[in-house]
Write a structure and sequence with these properties.
The chain has 12 helices and 14 strands. The protein is of the alpha/beta class. Helix 2 runs antiparallel to helix 9 and helix 10 runs parallel beside helix 12.
Amino acid sequence: MIQTAKRLDIVEEYYFSSKLREVRQLASEGKPIINMGIGSPDLKPSQAVIDAVTVAMQEENAHQYQSYQGLPELRSGMADFYQSNYGVALNPNTEILPLMGSKEGIMHISLAFLNEGDQVLIPNPGYPTYSSVTNLVGAVPIYYDLKEVNNWEPDFEALEKLDLSKVKLMWLGYPHMPTGARGSLELFEKLVAFAKKHNILLINDNPYSFVLNDKPMSLLQVEGAKDVALELNSLSKTFNMAGWRVGMVLGNAACIDAVLKVKSNMDSGMFFGIQKGAIAALKSDQSWFDSMNAIYKKRRVLTEQLAEKLGCEVYKEGVGLFVWAKLPAGITSSEDFIDKILYEKSIFITPGTIFGSNGEGYIRFALCVKEEIVQEAIDRFA
């Protein structure tokens, strides 16, 4: 028996990879499963995006290897998108790198900057991939608390009390996943100042800016942020292109170059047609965002009704693709709570614990289910 690498001893299979097998098994047994757990948009990209891909398929060079840095017009489209929507000026040649989804960027950044034993500040609760990738590269996760009492924002007094001498990198993500906390420019300014003070590379994971959020923000709006920061962004949620795998990393030019060194050794460029579709998506006007948010707003209203029917208290200030809710008083286990609903009502909801210990006592609903299906879930508790 060939032994696996030791690094696999400190990571587990991604929660949704294992849990969805269980959910699929229940569905195969005839259970009428409603999946409100995973944030995979069920809506289509715009027709302009689909048309752009269709036309691109016939172009002469469409099926060849592509540049590791993406098409120049894709990088320019990303720069224009940031200028138009965030007021952030970026050099498309040095400060932008297209990615095959922003999730791969987490790995690329970690490989580019972390040595074995380096420490990484990771939000609790937060996206589980920050921890798993940190462990895979041999670095050490240091969790910083996000709590409802602080509106799911960092406690800087607590951060300053930590031994930060070995901390090299800090992950954050606003709008926050899983809670939906908006963050603020004032928070970003404090984070940039903190990163500069302690010589820490700051990375904001920013895929939810435009979902039910009337004030999209970027960490790179803060003066001097490029000195110490990168930002990840994605077309997955904003343009319903999750399966297309299109993301980007933006910011400090020297850091972008370091990430490119890793990326160029791990893939052979993004498919030409997908890049053309991404270019079309990035040109979408305000009517696209308005139309998507009109749908998500109706879904959120119903999903909040479902959460309240379960006796949960909804975090009303949340934006983004999810509804975050506190469990009823006296309920101590998020995982037991969601399993009971899964087995008795055939509804899958995500337990807050998969995002960290501060997620215990909470559950998360994804707004990726049609209104009539959410209503059906509500009716199952009649």
